[in-house]
Request: fold
Amino acid sequence: MIQFEDVGFSYRGREGATTAVADVSLHVPRGATVAFVGPSGCGKSTLLRLVAGLLRATSGVVTVDGRPVHAPLKNVGMAFQNPVLLPWRTVLGNVLLPFEILEAHRGGGASERRAWQERAQDLLRTVGLRGLADKHPRQLSGGMRQRVSLCRALVHEPELLLLDEPFAALDAFTREEMWELHQTLRQTREFTGVLVTHDLREAVVLADTIYVMSTNPGRIAHVHPVTLPFPRRLADCESEPATALIHAMREEIRRAH
Reply:
C-alpha cells in the first residue's frame, strides 16, 4: 500500500538547507499498521506527512496504492496529539466535518447526507460514545475528545489512517483504553495504518512492524517485526518477547541521539 524508495526530504531555513530524512526505503502491506519510533527530531512526523502528500519528497519516490504522491491525498484520515475539535459544533457536527468539506466542493444530496450521518453514529457507538452526538467538546473528557477525533478521521472510510502521537496527552489508563479501541477499529474497519509515537509499549501493542529511526538526518536504523498474536492484550506487552523488544529499542534509540 505504501512504498518509499530512497526517499529524502530537505527544507531551507535561515542557515541554509537542512536534511530532515535521507535514504528511507520501506514498504507497508495493505491492511498492516506500522510504527515509527526514535528520538525527537529524527523525522518521524516528516515521514507521516510525506505519506499524506502534505510534504513532497526532495529525492526518491513515495507511492501509495501504486501511484506516486505529488499532492495531498484524499483517501487519508489523520489524528494528532491535539484533537482540534471545533468547540461551537456538536460531537456529530465535528465527525461530519469531512462530509461538509466534500459537499462544498462537489455537492451532495439528502440521501448521501443521511448515509454519512448513519456512518458517523455507527462509529460513535463503536468507540463508546453512544448518546453523546449532541454534546459539545467542552462537555467531554480528553479521552472522549480523542475518540471523536478518531471517528472524524474514519468517517469517510479512508484507505490510510495516519496517527501522530494521538494518545500522548492522555493519562495512562485512558491511553491503554485507546489502544484497545484502535485494535477494535482495525478489526471492524479496513485501513492501512501509520503511527508515530514515543511510547514503545504503544508501538508493540498496535504495530505489525516497528521502524526505529536515528537522527541527523533521520534514517531507518532498525526494523522490528512484531510477532505477538493479534489482537493483543496489555498482558502480552509484559511477556518476555515483548519486554526484550522494548529494552532493545530503548537502547537503539539511546544510541541514535
Q: What stands out?
A: Residues 110-126 form the longest helix (17 residues). The CA atoms of residues 14 and 20 lie 15 Å apart. The domain at 1-73+194-257 is CATH 3.40.50.300 (Rossmann fold).
